[in-house]
Specification:
Length: 437
């Protein structure tokens, strides 16, 4: 799930605190991503095996990979505060599932790992293999960075120590430390850790929600699997998709010319989208036409939400009833997110078209997304400055596929990057829970 913490960023305390040259400083992360994680029947509504649990300093939780084999080639990735220069990286790892000695012995754990470090341009600046020991407690590994930058870290399992009972490979905790002469803000790093713990608390609430899902919940399961994003290369297919995107863009512009706005009143709001289906978070309450009603209003602006380190704004709806195609009606609205953090800031503005069938099901979504990203705040001649590092325009088409009982079972996502002039396809599919208990 998206859980609305994945983009959490933090206010900057404008006190310059420079790192001592030979001192290790702790870097925290608000999130981690993994190639897979285990979902089981008894744990499917809380899923303590999520990769974020490898960052919580708690040996009673763990990232547990969810591949069908022993876990070789499975990966976990996490972002840290962007530094443009650093001399060394240190990882402290609690290998295996260290909740208890019994679980430690029953489950598998990494033996050989490959750690890769990426800079702000997402280029590899260091890669090194390590052998971990089959023991409880902390283990440390150090990677020379030779004054190169760092923004994210990837750990891949190369080989494993097999467990006595389960094939699942586990890592209880990973801590990240850095040596750098760049500005270090201890308060920002601590706030990241607090945000992660807030996510854990929120996940417990979500677990209770999923354990008693309303009959109207529009998704087929509590988690979805993200397929590989594939670049479209066939010329004929590309031309057809180009025409489709152009058609959607023109319709969006036509909708913007309408003057009458409608406020959407949601009857029973959906508390959470399934895991890894964050792409539907802003649309979760508009999947069934029966979920909401529309009433005429005179203003475009709808609501503004201040969420600690982010700001969310949305507009009221525009409406096209009985369009020329077979759809019952089309709605349009806009939303924007602003995020602020030490390493980067961003502003995302999305204009959206929602297409509904005659049965009142959300068939597809078209988004025009304008994204502005900025690099880390820095001081020059005593003046705080911020450089824009990326402007991009992305158009997205999301096509919903429903089960026989009208639950979303998969979503096909087409993305057109106007900057790179590319179109990609990706499938999000409802996950089947494991039978292990």
């Amino acid at each position: 799930m998206k859980y609305n913490i994945l983009l959490l960023c933090f206010p900057i305390i404008f006190t310059q605190m420079y790192s001592e040259e030979n001192k290790w400083n702790r870097l925290h992360s608000t999130e981690a991503f993994a190639s897979s994680f285990l979902k089981s029947n008894w744990n499917k509504y809380e899923e303590n095996y999520h990769p974020n649990y490898a960052l919580d300093d708690n040996p009673s939780t763990a990232w547990v990979e969810g591949d069908s084999g022993n876990g070789e080639k499975q990966t976990i990735t996490w972002k840290v505060s962007h530094l443009t220069t650093a001399s060394e990286l240190k990882l402290r790892i609690r290998n295996g599932y260290q909740k208890s000695k019994d679980l430690f012995l029953k489950n598998a754990m990494p033996k050989e790992i490959e750690v890769s470090v990426f800079d702000g341009k997402e280029e590899v600046v260091a890669t090194k293999n390590f052998l971990l020991e089959n023991k409880m407690g902390w283990q440390e590994i150090v990677i020379p960075l030779n004054e190169k930058g760092i923004k994210s870290i990837n750990l891949e399992i190369v080989s494993v120590y097999e467990g006595k009972l389960y094939k699942d490979t586990c890592i209880s905790d990973i801590q990240t430390f850095i040596k750098s002469t760049e500005v270090y803000n201890n308060e920002v790093e601590n706030n990241k850790f607090k945000a992660l713990n807030s996510w854990i608390k929120e996940r417990v609430k979500t677990a209770k929600y999923f354990a008693n899902l309303p009959a109207t919940y529009p998704f087929y399961s509590s988690s979805f699997t993200i397929g590989k994003e594939v670049k479209i290369k066939n010329k004929e297919e590309l031309q057809l998709l180009e025409n489709k995107f152009n058609e959607m863009s023109l319709l969006l512009e036509e909708m913007k010319n309408k003057k009458q706005y409608y406020k959407a009143e949601v009857d029973k709001p959906i508390a959470s989208v399934p895991d890894d289906l964050y792409i539907m978070d802003e649309f979760k309450n508009y999947i069934y036409r029966t979920q909401f009603s529309l009433s005429e209003v005179n203003t475009k602006e709808n609501k503004v939400l201040e969420l600690d380190f982010r700001k969310f704004q949305s507009t009221n709806f525009l409406l096209e009833e009985n369009p020329k195609n077979s759809n019952l009606f089309i709605t349009s609205f806009e939303f924007s997110w602003e995020s602020y953090c030490r390493s980067e800031s961003s502003n995302e503005h999305s204009s959206n078209l929602l297409f509904y069938s005659k049965q009142g099901l959300l068939e597809s979504i078209f988004q025009n997304i304008k994204l502005k990203e900025y690099n880390a705040d820095f001081f020059e001649d005593g003046i705080r400055r911020k450089d824009r590092i990326n402007d991009s325009i992305i158009e997205v088409i999301k096509k919903m596929n429903y089960s026989k009982n009208n639950k979303i079972i998969s979503i096909e996502v087409l993305r057109k990057n106007k900057n790179k002039n590319t179109i990609t396809k990706q499938i999000y599919t409802s996950s089947n829970d494991s039978n292990r208990n």
